[in-house]
Design brief:
Layout lengths: L12 H7 L36 H24 L4 H33 L12
Helix pairs in contact: 1-3, 2-3
The structure holds zinc ion.
């Protein structure tokens, strides 16, 4: 990560991440597409090269959306016992929709948290 010498007022990383905004200035956009990142912020020029959420957003989305959808499916099965096609009709679109919606939020929040906590790959500190 390059040295960050610019001075900006503090930005709430969760708020900026949910809105898909720049973690430094809170104004510029983080994404150029649905989940693809811009090269840098168009407002403050922050290079987004540091951003690497990895599998983090997918793991959170799988756990949270899976808990919600499976919980609802079990609740419906125990209370109403509908035929199998009703489960498919309800829970597959809900799982896909919630996952797509949550994926962008989770990626934005993890990247803004990465920036605010200066999280980076571990490096060995070797004496010269
Ligand atoms: Zn910015």
């Amino acid at each position: 990560m390059s040295e960050d010498r610019a001075h900006y007022p503090p930005v709430d990383p969760v708020k900026a991440g949910i809105g898909g905004r720049c973690p430094r200035c809170g104004e510029g956009h983080l994404f150029s597409g649905f989940l693809s990142m811009r090269q840098n912020c168009r407002v403050c020029g922050l290079d987004y090269g540091f951003a690497d959420a990895g599998d983090g957003p997918a793991a959170f989305v799988i756990l949270i959306v899976g808990f919600i959808v499976v919980g609802l499916a079990l609740w419906m099965e125990v209370n109403y016992g509908p035929p199998l096609w009703v489960h498919f009709l309800l829970w597959i679109p809900l799982a896909i929709g919630l996952s797509l919606w949550a994926m962008r939020l989770a990626k934005g929040v993890l990247i803004t948290l990465q920036y605010s906590n200066k999280a980076a790959e571990g490096r060995l500190d070797r004496p010269e």
